[in-house]
Amino acid sequence: MNRSASKGSTWTGLALAAVLTSTALCAPASAAVPAGAGGAAGPGRAGGTTATTSTAHERACPVAYFDLGETLVHTAEDGSTGFQPGAAAYLRALRERHIPVGLITNVPPSWGATDAERAARLRQEVDATWRGPGLFPWEDFGDRVLTPRTEAERKPAPVLWQRAKAGSGGCRVVYQAETAEEVRAATALGFIAYRTGRPHRPAFLPVRLVDLLDRRSPA
């Protein structure tokens, strides 16, 4: 191994260790969420979600969740929407590694009676104002689009993260958002959380670090 490759490997190991250590230190003992926590419904029940795959090639672990607005998608002053810088390439890199992705995002509960109905309305709203190159890859997210069923479930309330973790099948779960408040909340619930878009740091948690989580025991 040459010196450059060795430095890259060392950085990856240190960065992953830092992320895992931060998660372990910030998560209280109560962060382990039992199956069904937060009112998560099982397969086929209204409002529920599971960690089922959206393509036959997806592996089970880890699962990478995101906030949507100003994390993956940017809304301009004229109301048009498009990808945040680097988001399209990042999602493509996760897809190439068959890493399941999901959304944990606030929308009006009145948009539908189930996650599927609210996700369909969300897609309509975003697609109607889309001006960026390409389209948002909704198909990558499958049924992992979690939205509040009531106003009380809106983030930063813990319910949506609890539902995501309960449906993860024991996999490590990642959460990425642009706000410190949401990152802290997800970390407290046992997610490996990363704040996106910060100066002098990678725009998103490096894909190679997410990839390495498949080789670690679940939290």
UniProtKB/TrEMBL annotation:
Q: Which UniProt keywords apply?
A: Signal
Q: Which residues, if any, are the signal sequence?
A: 1-31
Q: Which CDD domains match?
A: HAD_like
* InterPro entries to which the protein is assigned, alphabetical: HAD-like_sf (IPR036412), HAD_sf (IPR023214)
Q: What is this protein called?
A: Hydrolase
Q: To which species is this protein native? A: Streptomyces silvensis
